[in-house]
Structures are given as structure tokens and as C-alpha cells.
Amino acid sequence: MTSTACFMIVSRNDIPIYEAEVGAAPKKEEAVHQHQFILHAALDIVQDIAWTTSAMFLKSIDRFNDLVVSVYVTAAIHTRLMLLHDSRNDDGIKSFFQEVHELYIKSLLNPLYLPGSRIKSSHFDTKVRALARKYL
Amino acid sequence: MANFLAQFQSIKNSCDRIIVAVEDVSDLWPLVKKSFEERLPLKGAVLNNKTRNPVFLQSLPVEYILTTDARIRSRFPHELSLFWFREPYATVVLVTCEDLDEFKTILKPRLKLIVQNDEREWFIVFVSRAPPHNDQATKMAKKVYARLEVDFNSKKRERCCKLDLLAPEANFWEDMETKVLESIRNTLDRRIQFYEDEIRKLSEQRFMPVWNFCNFFILKESLAFMFEMAHLHEDSLREYDELELCYLETVNMVGKQRDFGGMDRGDDQAALLSPGNKPLTQIVQNDSFRAFEFRQYLFACQAKLLFKLNRPYEVASRGYAFIMSFSKELVLHEKVLPFCAREVWMITACLSLIDATASRYSDVSVAPDTEKEFHRVQGDLYSLCRTKFMRLAYLIGHGPDIERSPANSASLSMLPWPKPAVWPSIPADASSEVLEKEKTILHATPKMKHFGIQRKALPLEPSLLLREANRRRASLSVGNALEMFDGQSFMDGSDSELRRAPAPKVNAVTMSRTNSSLGIFESTIDRPMRLSEIHVAAEHALKKTISDPDLWKSLSSLEEFEKKYLQLSKGAADNYHHSWWKRHGVVLDGEIAAVWYKNGNYDLAAKSYEKVCALYSGEGWQDLLAEVLPNLADCQRILNDQAGYLSSCVRLLSLDKGLFLPKERQAFQSEVILLAHSEMENPVPLDVSSLITFSSNPGPPMEICDGDPGTLCVTVWSGFPDDINLEALSLTLTDTHNADEGVKARKSSGATILKPGKNAITLSLPPQKPGSYVLGVLTGHIGHLIFRSHNFSRGGPAESDDLMSYEKPTRPILKVLEPRPLVDLVPAVSSALLLNEFQWMGIIVKPINYSLKGAILHIDPGPGLVIEETHNIEMERYDNAGENQLKSTRSEDSAGDVHFKQLTLQNSRLELPEWASNITSVLWIPMRAISDELVRATSEGVDNLQRQSLVDGLRTIALKLDFGVSLNQTFERTIAVHFTEPFHVSTRVSDKCNDGTLLLQVILHSQVKATYTIYDAWMDLQDGFAHTGQRDGRPASAFFPLVISPTSKAGILFSICLSNMNPEDEPKQPQEDSILNIKYEISGNRNVGAHSPVALPHSGVENATEHLTFRCAVGLQRPVLDPCLAVGFLPLPSSGLRVGQLVAMKWRVERLKFFEDSALSENKNEVLYEVSANSENWMIAGRKRGYADLSKDEGSRIVVSVLCVPLVAGYVRPPQLGLPDVSKTTISCNPPGPHLVCVLPPPLSSSFCIPA
């Protein structure tokens, strides 16, 4: 499992609707800020790249020292699943994204969930963390 | 061959354009030189590039050099091939000859000799000096030239052209330029071929030990240089690219470790744009070059070509990539390079690249995409430079002045820091500087943020900087790092500590203090350095490294540092703003703002912070927003921007609760409240949509009737951490169908206290128009401050509203119903009541799904109607018709029934009791209809006509009911009540007896739905009549009491006779009519109709038992005893009468006797007649009234005839003839009483029938 990873789902309006530090390394308080900052800045790059390719999985679009940002852009609603990671396991990351995407779609189908609002489901959180352990 | 390097360099420097040699055979050059060189550079050249594709060149600089020139002459043959690029690309042979023989003998052999060298591309320019007017000379010149052409032109190629000096032909120069270019093209092709072959040969040996990069380089660069001379920059660039690839491939070959370079003074300044920075000979090493200098050289060459190609964007983007890859290279050699040489190099590289590209970029117009991309790269360069600059600044102790923002923290603490082999040690004489640094560090307590926000500062340095700075030294001296520390946080010395070490900054500082105070280690070399010492040491080391005085100046003082820092940040931000990367730009704006904020330039700082906050809050990145928003708020506070400050406080409060401590949130709130209660200069409505949200209560919308006020319950969520007092609160509702008109609901009851979280608020609602309403805007006052909130919450705390925009609740909260009847007032009884008696008049009050609580009834009786005010009004529950009787009796039984009440009328107002709010009730009002008229009896036959009109008994009563929550609803109705006399009386003379006795039958027809009991009846007769016998005219008392059922009839027979009229009674007013008196009692139910009159309280018991009296006038007519005139109705035609058929009605008037005393005496021979008929039944044609001749003689007669049309079929009364001037008592009629005739229906009309 990767030691540092920050996973984030950003809605169409660029609002983070889910975030999780999924790295194995012990959590550092300031890291959250820095990771958020890096992912936020990476939105600039996603916005450039997303329209140049038809692929949903954008591999390593930005790097910050040894940390890499990979992004998965969903087709319809333009939700971005962003992962800041330090591992190079592209296949694992891709599978992780795909499965999280599926989870995300399931939560979208929940009639009580308002699309674009924060995902507060603890079940979703648990599942994402389990997926992170499995693939990253 | 490497020895040629120096020579190669000098050749390269000396020649910069293509050379064309001029073989001046006949000493003509001085004559033509000027005109030759005037036409340089050549225009519109087409040359072949390396792939043999023609390339068009706008202009090609060329230099003509005589073959006798020293530059061409003295060359060794072996140099020729290597530096072939500098050799002439064409040879122009200038000749002239005026004699054919001379040409044959001298010139031709000489020319043959010159052109025999196949290597050279040549052509001959024959210069004719013959003047144009001299035909001889011209002819000769032509001849010679013709000869020349024959001798030197080949089939394939013309190599001659002729120049007339005195009369130049127009196309000569064109011709000559073509020839020059052709030659150059051919030569260039040949040389390219040559170099390519050579290079290929060398490349094949690349991996052999004997291979020498320098040789390869010379060849390759020669080719590149040749291309450059020929202005084939693309090809030249490609050569350099290949050269770079080849170099990178070979330089790192195993076993060939070379010096890296970069150790010279001035090497810290990047030379990536100046190819001539260092002579190549200086950087050559064995068979190759030092990487540090050579890679920069190659990039410089590439950049130069790219600039020539006008592609500054590519320089910038290639440059950025180069800097990044080169910086990696530098990391590998960091241990041998001077301290922080890499950082300094990167700073200078970025700066020079930025300057060069930006200055060349300004005049280039490019596609917008490229422009954006260019700015993006510029921004990248700036921010890279900025990061490195900050790092240097931190090292020498400007750290406390660098904003610890996420951006700075991420770029400084998360990227690798310099790791020199040996961290610089502190110079011997620097103790004072150390002391000073120590002081500044001690003073630089973390600045207290406004609102008392205390959060751990983000780190700027990697967690193990201090340790890193000491470790190397320690290992050199004592060898064990652990001993040096107290070991509190750095106990495990493994490298993975980077991630585990908590709170690096704080620990670092405290630790250094403990170390210094302990003073265990005496000697400088042994003792670990404190942070201040590290700074001082780094400063001294950097001073040595940095050769650029400007850069050093920027680092030397805090002011200069900030100046440079601002310049870099601004550059980066501006460029990012010009590109697509707005977020990068805005983040840097925040950094700029931080500097301004620190320096007290709050105006600018606030502007920039606003941009940053707008970005973060727009995109909902609350963690990042929480970093900058307090600063913005502080700026606004200082600038006295109250509106901005308030809205910032509100935004702070509406951020995630976890982002601030409760104490801090309370501080925000107290600021808001403090400001709200102070006197503000310009009170601006404050938008608290994110903080105070509201929603309707679940369930169906409240429904109210049109015109009613109401109370509305809404739920308000407060995001304030504490209770908050609101001075006023009101809510606007919006009509779903009409957006313009809103409705305001107001919290009337003064101050409201909002608890944190959910609050149920009740608002009063004024009357509304019909429609359905949704929630609009919530407004209110906190102190003097008006606030408004647009945010609907969906049953929870606020979500950011922009993404909910399409989800706005459209569920109506309030429905105002269309106007509908809410209440009905109807009379309880439809049948008639008794006139002139107190009667209970019932009014049914029927609420229609609407409460009548507190309703007030105004009663206004119309004319002829009096309310008995002394008597109470009764009210009772009203039940449906079927149960009426039963219920009413029962209600009487149970007097204590709540559904019965006696009410009193006050000022004709009446308040309805509460129990009657929702049930149908009936109101009994004691009333009397007053009528002064005496009833007249009618004759039996004529009752149809003379019956008392219904209208006479009608009375109206106006009712007005005020009801509703605040008596806002009104219901008005005028009710007609029918009153009537108890009986209708008709009379008939049933028999005339022989003895003059008349039997008068009086028929009583009950008019009401009640039972009468008649106790007595008598008749006061008029003059001329008397009761038979000596009785008082009463019928036999055995008849009484006589009971008359409702609406039935009863008859009473009176026996009367005529009496003589006493002449002496004349003065007495004659009694015109007889009066029928009836004493009766009535027993009826007020629920049905007439009933016994209301017992008046003051009249006492006596009256209660008194019978009622009914009086009726009966007109008795004396029989005609002395007839003077006789009127006879003549029989009608036997065919009978039919509707629509004309019939003549005839009366015969006959004078029976003469009478003198008649009033008619004046009209001697005439009599006035009048025909009266019911106009509904008859249409009369002819004169209805007139005088008919009738003589005074006895027995005279006349027939009055009137044409009539019957209109109605059936038995009708025929028209009657009356004689108005004659007393009725003297007229004898036949038939004597009213009679009927039969009118047949109209005959069937067959005109519309269709025969069978």
C-alpha cells in the first residue's frame, strides 16, 4: 500500500464533495492543507487536459516532488476523482478509480442524496478506504 | 582532431555568412564591386535543406570576396574538408575582352585553367565596356561573348552572362542572382552530403573506445553552422538537437567518469542563453566536454536559433524543461558543487529565460492558445524561481518573514532541500552576527492572528533541516548524532523520520535553545549548530557561492528580499492570470497580499485577499479558505470597511464548524454583534444566507381564507455558535404565479433569540391575496444592522447554495384560498308570521368550514319592523329539518344545554357565543311587524282579485356579520320576512230569506302554519243592518272554542236583517263597514311558522292568558230597494267565447223611473258609463268610459256595446259596466252579483298540420 495518498472527489462546480487521507503513513496535520493545495492547483491542469483526450483516467497529470496527481474524470457530470499518491502502481490506481466511480454512481442513485452535495455516507467512506487498501 | 577546436571556434566567430569568390581575371572588380554589393543580401532564395526539400528564404546574406583575399588564400589542404563550410559557395569569373583573337589565345586558356577544378561552382560574367553608340565596339563585344558562350556553356547549364557597364540590360542582375543561387545551392547540397557522410562514419564508431566526442561535435556543429549561415535555421536546430541527444547518450557512459564542471567562479549564474560564455576549449576534457558548461552551451545555441525563428514560446517551454532536467543533474553533483549552487543557478536561469523570452515575445503575434501557454510557462518559471529564492532566503534567516501559507509550505517543505556534502560551518568571527540572528528569531514570535485564532503554523522547512545541517558535521567530528540531542523527538535516526517528526518548527526552535543553554559541547566543531548559527553559516557560504551582485543584494536585507519576492510573485501571478491557470494565479495573489498585509498596505492586501477568498469559497475549498479569510477580515477591519468586515465574519462563521475552535467562532460572533450594535456610518444589509437558513415545516402548506391574517411557522437554522438576539425578524413570501408581488410576514413580538441550530419561529401574516406562496427572503435586524438571507435549507444546516439552485424548494408554504362563501344567514322559517304581534323570527347562522369565533352580528330591521329590545334574543343549535321538533323540545327540557343562550342586543350589535363558532345555530329575534291597515273581508267570488297583496306583509331585516380572526370578514344579507294577518276573511250571503233575513256566511281562511283556537266571534254591524233577534250578533256559544287547523278554512254564519236608517242619526258619522271581531289563540311552533306571540315581560301574567283579537272590516251592501236604473248584461252569442275571437259585450241600460234628486240632474239626457275589466283576461277595443244618451223619460233605454277579445281560456269574470255617477243603491243589476263566463281555448290551427 502506498504510504501517502490523498483522495478527493471534486464536483462539477469544483467543490470538493469528498476527501480522505488514505495513505498508510501516519497522518500529519499540516499535510492535509498541503495536499488540498496541491490538488486544488492541479484542477488547473485537469481543466486543460480533460478536453484533449477521451480517456477518463488521466495518469500522472501533475507531480509535486515525489507526489503524483492522477485524475479520473467521469463522463456525464464531469466529476473528478483526484488522487495524490506516491506510488507508481498505475493499474491499481486505475482499478481504484473505476471501483470508486461505481460507488459514486451508487450514491448518486440514492434519492436522498442531492447531486453535488457533500458525500457524508459512512458506508461510502468505509468502502473507499477498503478499496484504497486493496489497490493502492 | 580535437586540437582543431580552438581554430574551429575562431573560424566560427569570424565568418557568419555565405562567401562567393570573385575571380577577377581582367581587373574589373573595382568597377563592378559597388553594383554587385548593392544587391545584397540576395532576395527570394530557394535552398535545399537536409532532406532535399526546397526552402524559401526571404533574404540570404552573401559576401563577395576576391580570390586573392587573404581569408581564402592561405589554407592548408587538410583543413579544407573539415572546415569546408567556410569555403566559397560559388565562384564568379569576371572577364572582358574586346578582341576575338585575344580571347582565343589568352583568355580562353586561362579561363579553362580556372574552371577545370570541378569542386567549384563557377560562372562567367562577361563585362562589356563598349559604349552603346559605338557600334563597332558593341559588335565586337557581342562576338566575343558569343564565342565565350559557345566555349563554356554546356547543354545542361548556362554559365555565362553579360554585363554592359555603360548600358546594363534590365534582366542581367536577375540572371546573375539566379546563377549565384544555383551555384550556392549546388555547393550546399554537395557539402551537406559530405558532412552527412562524415558524421555517419563517426556515429558508427560511437561505441568504440577510440571514439572522440569532440570530433563528432566539430563535424556536427560545422554542419549546423553551415545551415545557420544559409539561414536554414530549422535544420541547424535539428543538428543541435541531435548533438544534444548524442552527448547525453555518451556522457554518462560507464567507465568514463568525467568532471561535471560548475566549480568556477561565476558558474552559479546560468549561461543557458549565452553560447559564448566560456570558450569551448576551456571545457574540453579528454575527448569530450564538461557537462555543466556544455549542456548550457547546447541549449544556448538552440535558444539562439529559436529566437531567430521567432519562437520565444518554444525557448521558454524548452527552457523550463531544460532547467528541470538540469536541476536533477545538479542534484547528483550537489556534493561537489558549492553550497546551494543549484538553487542559485536555477534562480538565475529562470530569470534570464524570463527576461529573454518576455522581451522577444512582446512583438510577436501568435495564436491565442500559444499565448496562453506561453504565459503559463512564464508563470511556471517565475514560481520556480520564487520557490528557490524563498529557500535561499529561509536559509539565511528570512524565514520568519515568509508567509506560512499552504502554497509556500507545500513548495518549500515538501521539495528536497540542499544536501551539501558538508554543511557550511560558521566562520570564526561571526559571533556577533549569530547573536543578532538569535535575537531576531526570539523576537519573531508567531504573529497572533486576528480573532485570537491560534493554529499551528505550517512548516516551511523540511522537518530534518536542523538535523541535516548538523549530521554531516557531527559524523565528521564525533560520529554519533544521537549524543548531540536531548533525544526528545529525534530518538530514531532513520530517514523515514521525515514523515513522523511532529511539529518540526516548534521543536527545532526549542531544541536549539536547550542545546545552547546546556552548553555541553565546548568546541565549535563538536557542538551542533543552533538555528541562528546555521543561518549565519549559510549566509557566509552563500555569499561565496553567489557571484551575481544583484541577487546577493536581494538576499542581503529584508527590504530587498521582500522587493524581489514581490516582483517574482507578481510576475508569476500576472502570467498565470494571462494563461488558463487562474487558480495558480489567484493563489499567488494571496501570497502578494500576505506581504502587503504584513507591511501595512491593507488596501491592496484586502483587494488581493478578496480575489483569493472568492476563488476558494466559489469552489468550496473551505480548508484553504479558512487560512486566508481571517486575514481578509483583519484588513477590512483596519480599513474600517464595515460591510466587508461583517460579511467576512459571516463567512467565517459559515465555514465548517471543525475548521475553527468554538472560542474562535464565538469571537467572530461577538465581532458581528459588537458592530451591529454600534453606530455604523453606512448601514448596509448584510447577507447571511450561508449562516441563517430557513425552511418551511414539513407537512401540507398552511391554508388561510382570502382576506384572513394568519400565523406562519417556519424553522430557522442559526449557524452562530451562541444564542443571538434579533431585534426584528420578517420573512417575505413569493407568489408562485406572480413573482413581482411578495408578501411580508413579520415577527411582531419584539426581539427573538436564535439558538444555535434549529429554531421554530412563528410569524404573523397580514391578509393576503389568493394564491400559493413559497418562501422568499428572510430579513431582520441585529442591533442596527439589517440582515437578509436567501437560503432555504432542506432540513439541515446550510449547503452551499449555488449547486442547489435548481433544487430550490418550490413547495408552497402558504395557500390563500380563492374567495368563497364562509357563512350563510338564512331565515329559519319560510312561512308567514303574524302581523302586529311579537313573533320570534329565526335566522340560521351557518358557518361554512370557517370559525365564527368572536363574530358580531349587526341587525337592522327595515321599516315597519321593530325589534323587541326588552326581550332577550335566543340562540340555539340548529338541527336538520327532520329532527326539528324533537330537538327543540329536548333543548327546552335541558335548559342547561351549552347550545342555548340568551343574548342581549346592544346598539343593534350582537356577539355570537363561542360554542356557535363552528356549528350551525339559529338565532331567534323577537320582532313585531307593524301595520295600521284594517283588513277588509272580500266577497266570496272576488277573492282572487282583491286579495291582500303579498307585498303588504313583507318586511326586510338587514343583517351584517363581522367575523374572522380579526373581524376582517364581513357578510351582509338582507332577509325578507313574510308577515300576514291571521285570517283571510271572505263573506257570502248564503241565503236571503223571505222575511228579509240575510244569512251572512263569514269564511275564515287560516294564513299561517299554526292552529287557531277561536273563543269568540262577533260582528259590529254597520248602519242599516241589525242582528236578527235581540242578540248581540254572536253565534251560538256552543261552537266555541273552534279549532282551525293550519291553512284550513272555517265558516261562521251570522243572521242579520236590514234595519231602517234613522234620519235623526244623520249627524252621527255613519259606520261604513261592519267589523268582524274574533278572539282567538294561536298555537304554533316557531320553527315552523307563526306562533303565539312573545310574552312581554312587562305585560305580566294577565296578558299572557288574554286572547288575541282579530278585527276585520266587512262591507255589507244593502239590497237595491228603489232601483231607478237597470243594467242588464245581454246574453252572449250561443257559439260561446273563444280566445282571440272578437266578441261584442252588450249591456242594456234602462231607466226605470224618473228621479229628480239625482246628482245626474244636470246632465239631462246623458249617463256616464265605464267598462272595467281585468286586463289580463280581456282586451277591450273601443271606449271604456263615456257618456251614453239616455233621456230622462221613464222607460228610455240604451244598449252599450263594447268589443272585447278574451285572452285567457277558462271561467273568467267578464267586463263589467258601471255607472260612476249613479249611486249604487239605485241600480239594479242583472245578474246581481259577480258572475263568470266560459272562454273556450282557441281553435286548433291546421295550417301547420301536414295532411296524412
Automatic annotation (TrEMBL), chain A:
GO biological process, one term: endoplasmic reticulum to Golgi vesicle-mediated transport
GO CC, one annotated term: cytoplasm
Superkingdom, taxonomy of origin: Eukaryota
PANTHER family: TRAFFICKING PROTEIN PARTICLE COMPLEX SUBUNIT 2
Protein name: Trafficking protein particle complex subunit
UniProtKB/TrEMBL annotation, chain B:
InterPro entries: TPR-like_helical_dom_sf (IPR011990), TRAPPC10/Trs130 (IPR045126), TRAPPC10/Trs130_C (IPR022233), TRAPPC10/Trs130_N (IPR056913)
Segments traversing the membrane: none
Every TRAPPC10/Trs130 C-terminal domain range: 1136-1217
Protein name: Trafficking protein particle complex subunit 11 domain-containing protein
Source organism: Daucus carota subsp. sativus
Residues of the TRAPPC10/Trs130 N-terminal domain: 16-316
Lineage per the UniProt record: Eukaryota, Viridiplantae, Streptophyta, Embryophyta, Tracheophyta
Any one GO cellular component localisation term in the record: cytosol
GO biological process, one term: early endosome to Golgi transport
Subcellular location: Golgi apparatus
Keywords: Golgi apparatus, Transport
